[in-house]
Amino acid sequence: MSNWSIIHRVRYPPFDDKRIHASAAPISEKIVQSNLSEEEVMKHLPPYTIESKEGWLIERKFVNDVEESFNGNTDYRTDERPYVQLVEKQRIGWYILPNQLHGYARKMINFAVILLLTTLVYLFLEPILSAIGIPSVGTKSLQIGLLDYPILSIIVVPIIMLPILLRLIANFIDLKRQQDFLGSPVLQPKIQFATKTVSGKPLEGVIEIPEHLPDWKSMTVHWHVGTLPPSREALIEISNTTEDSQPPIGLSTPLPHHWESGLDDGTAGGEDSPMERKDIQGGLFLRPMRFSGEGGQSTIADDGSFSIEPPADLWPGTVNSPLHRVHWEFILKIKRDKKMPLLWVCPVLVDFPDRVVDLKNLNINDPRTEQFYIGKR
Q1: In terms of Cα–Cα distance, which of 140, 52, 115 is closest to 362?
Q2: What's the half-sphere exposure (Cβ side, CA atoms, 13 Å) at 326?
């Protein structure tokens, strides 16, 4: 009789995954449990595969001692372990959306840099072009103060500064929004989900909203699923390295003491959120999940009941391990008059479907907060 092992495999996308070829990054493996009989394997969470078209991967496998894979059906169930700290601090409660100027500014930066480099190259080559009879453009001088500047630079420099100005404006607007929201807190809704929620089936429940503010125009409910980043400690452990040594591909060296462990993907590869109030643990902006699937949208009936269609693709149920974190969440979206929408977020425990999940060719989401999208803005 063969013995079975449960293996978790991970090649999780770093912050700026477009700079790294997934095929060049190793797939890390961890044996979660071993020496199990087939009957014991059937009592555990089922296997699943979540993979992007680039090759970023989260996989749970059942393999026996003769290297045969088990893909049989197990009773659908959910991971009953407590939610990880990342959920408790960053994905429960009220959230607002950052200003859209952040996205516009990021798109303009690439154009501004290309324009700057092109201008410098042109100014360098201009004497040669003039010598062979090609007329120059924008190279005549313009005096500002005691110095002369090429007219072309007077045009280009404001374009370069515009993305920085937009980011500053957006950050001040975001800080003002956070201040306004915290100055007039909103009561938490009360929600009761159906006794059993299974992946691939609608989410049903009843929600009670204690108050309705005058500027609320409409309310809709959504749900979606995705993967949260593995803990830094788990990634370091399976890479056979230590915290003080060279970190594995995609991870940064340890961040300063003000960074709270468990509230970051550990890559330190860039700014994932606009300027936030430091007195609010986890912040007021909801981070996108790298792999994700959007469920349906529904209005709320007069008695508070709702029924929301599941995502189009079949996803695993809830998983709360240090290495694998499949997260489902319910979102109440409130559209407000002359303000960005208000989001109330609540995690949902979802059972696995009654067949093996094999997700391939998924798109990887940008981890920046301004890229978070739920329904139509």
Answers
A1: 52
A2: 29
Amino acid at position 146, single letter: L
Report the chain's terminal Cα–Cα distance, integer Å: 57
Closest to 191 measured CA to CA, from 270, 83, 308, 107: 308
Listed as own residue / partner, the contacts of 24-32 with beta carbons closer than 8 Å and 24 or more positions apart are 24/249, 25/249, 25/250, 26/239, 26/248, 26/249, 27/57, 28/235, 28/238, 28/239, 28/248, 29/238, 30/234, 30/237, 30/238, 30/323, 31/5, 31/6, 31/7, 32/6, 32/7, 32/8, 32/321
Name residues whose C-beta falls within 8 Å of residue 108's C-beta, 6 or more positions apart in sequence: 162, 163, 166
**In a 3-state reduction of DSSP, which class is residue 350?**
coil
- Report the predicted TM-score, pTM, of the whole model to 2 decimal places: 0.84
Cα 322 to Cα 326: distance, rounded to the nearest angstrom: 11
Distance between CA 259 and CA 58 in Å, rounded? Answer: 26
pLDDT, tens digit (0-9, with 9 covering 90-100), for 146-173: 777 777 878 888 888 898 899 899 888 8
- 208-259 pLDDT per residue, tens: 999 888 889 999 999 999 999 888 888 888 887 777 777 777 677 666 544 4
Please state, in angstroms and as integers, the Cα–Cα distance from residue 297 to each residue in 55, 221, 231, 292, 349, following that order. 30, 6, 31, 16, 19
At how many degrees (to 10) do helices 101-131 and 151-183 cross? 170
Residue 362 is given by DSSP the state: E
Dig out the tokens for 271 from the structure. Answer: 């700014």
DSSP 47-99: PEEEEETT--EEEEEEEETT--B-----------SPPPHHHHHHSSEEEEPPP
- CA distance readout (Å), 133 to 122, 125, 136: 15, 13, 9
